[in-house]
Amino acid sequence: MKTKQHTLRIILLFAFFLAQTSSILAQTNTGKLMLKGTIADSASRNKLAFITIKLNNDKGETIRAGVTKEDGSFAFSSLAPATYHIVIVAIGYQPKIFSLDLQKDSDLGTVVLKQQSNSLKEVSVTATKPIIKQKADRIIYDLSADPESKSSSVLAMMHKIPYITLDGQDNILLKGNSSFKVLINGKPSASVESNLNAILKSMPASTIERIEVITIPPSKYDGEGLAGIINIITVKKVSNGYTGTLNANESFPVGGPGAGGSFTAKSGKFVISAFAGASIVNNPQTSFTNSRETFDAAPTSLLQTGERRANNKTAYFGTEMSYEIDSLHLISGQINLNGSRATDYMSQASQLNGSPVVTQAYDLLNNNKGTSYGGDAAINYQIGFKAVKNRLLTFSYQYSGNRNNRNGDVAITNPVNFNTPNYTQNDKQNFNEHTLQADFVTPIKHINIEAGVKGILRTSNSNFGYNSFNSTTGQFDLNTALSNQYTNKQNVFSTYNFYQINLKSWNINAGVRVEETVIRADFISTATTADQDYFNVLPSISVGKNLSDQTALNFGFSQRIRRPGINRLNPYINRSNPNFEVTGNPNLRPVLLNDIQAGYSSNKKLSLNIGLDYSFMNNLDLQVADFDPATQITRTTYENTGKSSSAGSNLSVSYPVSKVYNVSLNGNVMYLWLQGISDGVVVHNNMLMYSFSFSNGFRFDKGWAVNADLNIVSRNPTGLQGYSNGFFGTAFSANKELIKNKLGFAVRVNNPFTGYRNNVARTFGPDFNQLYNSRDYYRSFGISLNYKFGGLNDGVNKSRRSIENNDVAN
Fold first, then answer.
1. Residue 120: count of CB within 10 angstroms of its CB
2. Where does the Outer membrane protein beta-barrel domain start and stop, copy by copy (predicted)?
3. What is the sign of the dihedral through the CA atoms of 151, 155, 159 and 162?
């Protein structure tokens, strides 16, 4: 970037020299008047250097011309009294033309330029301040430009972002897929990912600048994440001094109080940026039913009814720091911490019927408690080169750790033909990761070349115990047959080469990544092991073409991999419900996805973004449910049993109906072909999936803004043999600036016309059907207060390259 700026400066100075020479030769009317001013960006107020300024006469002839200095200032001396037409032109900004009758020395003060909605490398999809921008390999959603962000959490804003939907349990899906990676400020955080939904639900959207959806990740990223990468940008811009935001919010009857904020400060060559927050989420008591019908030689029907409530407390903190030793050496680092405490209470009555009598019955009380604590820290050392300013060598190290504990107490009463005593379950899960990485970047004319090597040393383990109540001793005794200790060591070694070519109207990204994975799983309780070793070559390419009529085309192909994480590998068996068991599979192998994409965008009054996508994969790891008639237990686990393909389209439309009213539509449509084997039988689970978010935005005088949203989501697969029901929802919000650009107040109501929603999940197999129906709170109210302090302009100096571990799926 510095090389390009240097070249641009030379060109502009040369043009200035020619213009000044021409004006001296052509000038016939001299004087002694002075005209000066300063040019700045209208949004950031940054001073703009090397901006061309022309003084034209009434005939349109250029009398004088010049460019601004590095501080954005300009000055013309020895001007004759006359009327001048001032023309200010800058790449990426709208031209500014105005007239001035110069009769005395004049100071124009600060003249601001508005950014143009399209540039050589990006196409904006919104007109004024672009909310959506498209690059060859990603979509960028500017949360700071969306007034609804002032009253919502990050999770609540996700449905407005292209390619992203939320299912009935507020789980994020990217292109209909739950396999993706999340980065915070371009960097991974294993501790954040382990508690993603809770953190995003507690994180105020007002503290986020933008969210990037990287649908064709370049080869510099790890190959993990079948659907792509979601990058959440929180870093604020500053110069010497400080700036920050504060948010306080409350929602009810679902939800609770929360607070969050961000802070950035710079002093000389040292910069620090931080974001933090905490929340309490209450889910009041609701009811549920769980039923199962079997079709074997002795058919049965199971009916479970009950009630449950939950509470979750979450807190998080993240910070980035940098110190510029000199112009060629930079040290930067990050620290992320988070923790949560969750409690869940459930009461349940269960009855199993044969034909035609009751064969089994019991009542159950289940208390679950869980804690999660995680953290990661990284340091990067960047070296520049005098000969080529954009040539960089970076060395990075990162440590990540996470601790999860879950405990469940199950009490059985009123048993009929059910001899299982009361029991407790506890699972201690630990995760540790060390990463070493080296990256090299260098430009060669129009090509930017990147290369790197990386090693990840990862260890995760689980120690779970099942303890049965001993009526003789009055104690809970460990049942070794139902307990296990498990350790998984996973080492990933990779190298990549990436090329970025920027031409006049073309932007091409191409590269290849090579990854070697070595896994060893130790089952300590049974003294057995499982070894895996696999090698992958993962190419990616994306091409963007900007057309002359403010439209653009892009194409791409990538291969992505999904390695099973500890949540899928963990052999811990969750027996919270005795008739339904859930466990992991330590023998899972990775999945490889091939993805082809094409897109079109237009930045006219009607802003339009259309994407097409086709993907396919084999050996897919899917949730598989099997019913055992001997024990009357349905067990759900993961198996490499499936193959799938999908074809779909993404649509984003925005239209300014008037100065105060804007409408937008974000939609996804995809048809999924999914098949696998369950209990020796081939199962098909094909379906059409879609989601649409229709938003109406009103911006009035005196700082008022109102939004009305309609969200429609179809059913979604929950594994090889299941799917959840669809739903539609409404949301209304209003916010008011109490102090301009400082203090704001917002209120929000979700689904005011519907108090509850039936959340339905169906599971089917060759010899059974299951139906789970939970009656959940749907109507909710929220209020928030947002405060911004400081007012600064530069950014945190960060290493151009740092560790980004994106290679594990849970």
1. 13
2. 389-787
3. positive
The partner residues of 620 in beta bridges, in order of sequence, read 642
Contact criterion met (CB below 8 Å) for 1 and 390: yes
Contact between residue 392 and residue 355 where contact means Cβ atoms under 8 Å apart: no
Looking up residue 35, the CATH number of its domain turns out to be 2.60.40.10
Any domain includes 260: yes
How many domains, the chain? 2
Q: Cα separations (Å) of 128 from 42, 666, 722?
A: 12, 18, 44
The candidate with the shortest Cα–Cα distance to 136, out of 552, 544, 462, is: 544
Question: CA triplet 385, 389, 393: central angle to 5 degrees?
Answer: 50
Name the pairing type of β-strands 181-184 and 229-233.
Answer: parallel
Phi then psi for 442, rounded to 5 degrees?
-150, 140
Strand partners, 100: 84
pLDDT digits (tens, 9 = 90+) for 18-30: 333 333 334 334 4
Most confident of 92-106, 153-167, 187-201, 248-262: 248-262
Confidence of residue 749 (pLDDT cuts 50, 70, 90): very high
Q: Which residues contact 542 (CB under 8 A, 6 or more apart)?
A: 136, 137, 216, 218, 508, 509, 510, 554, 555, 556, 558
- Kindly write down the DSSP assignment for every residue of 159-227, as one continuous string: GGSTTEEE-TT--EEETTBS--EEEETTEE-HHHHTTHHHHHHHSBGGG--EEEEESS--TTS-SB-SS
Instruction: Name every residue whose Cβ is closer than 8 Å to that of residue 392 and which is 6 or more positions away in sequence.
Output: 382, 383, 384, 385, 439, 440, 441, 442, 800, 801
- Using alpha carbons only, how large is the chain's radius of gyration in Å? 30
Segment 157-183 shows an average pLDDT of 77
Q: Which sign, positive or negative, has the C-alpha torsion 178, 180, 181, 184?
A: negative
CB contact at 8 A, 75 and 55: no
pLDDT for 553-598, tens place per residue? 999 999 988 888 767 877 888 888 999 999 988 888 888 889 999 9
Instruction: Say if residue 11's pLDDT is above 70.
Output: no
Q: Which two tokens mark 488?
A: 């998984």
Asked whether 731 and 780 are in contact (CB, 8 A), the reply is no
**What gap in Å lies between CA 146 and CA 136, rounded to an integer?**
23
Return d(Cα 2, Cα 8) in angstroms, integer: 10
Band of pLDDT at residue 3, cut at 50, 70 and 90: very low
CATH of residue 230's domain is 2.40.170.20
Question: Confidence band (pLDDT; 50, 70, 90) for 238?
Answer: low
The three-class DSSP label of residue 29 is coil
Tell me, what's the pLDDT at 498? 92
* Phi and psi angles of residue 266, each rounded to the nearest 5 degrees, phi first: -135, 135
564 cis-preceded (ω within 30 degrees of 0): no
Minimum mean pLDDT range among 3-12, 257-266, 324-333, 595-604: 3-12
Residue 118 lies in a domain: no
Verify that 610 and 649 share a domain, yes or no. Answer: yes
Residue ranges of E strands in 583-631: 591-603, 607-628
Tokens describing residue 534: 């696999």
Structure tokens at 628: 């055992």
CA atoms 228, 566, 279, 311: torsion sign: positive
List pLDDT tens digits, range 372-385.
999 999 999 999 99
What domain range includes position 19?
A: 2-113
The reply to whether 88 and 138 lie within a common domain is: no
On whether the CB atoms of residues 769 and 225 are closer than 8 A, the answer is: no
Is 77 in the same domain as 212? no
User: What is the sign, positive or negative, of the torsion defined by CA atoms of 52, 53, 59, 61?
Assistant: negative
586: DSSP letter: T
Burial code of 129-150, b = ≥16 C-beta within 10 A, e = fewer? ebbbbbbbbbbbbbbbbbbbbb
* Mean pLDDT of all residues belonging to the chain: 84
* Three-state DSSP class for residue 356: coil
Sign of CA dihedral 159, 160, 164, 165: positive
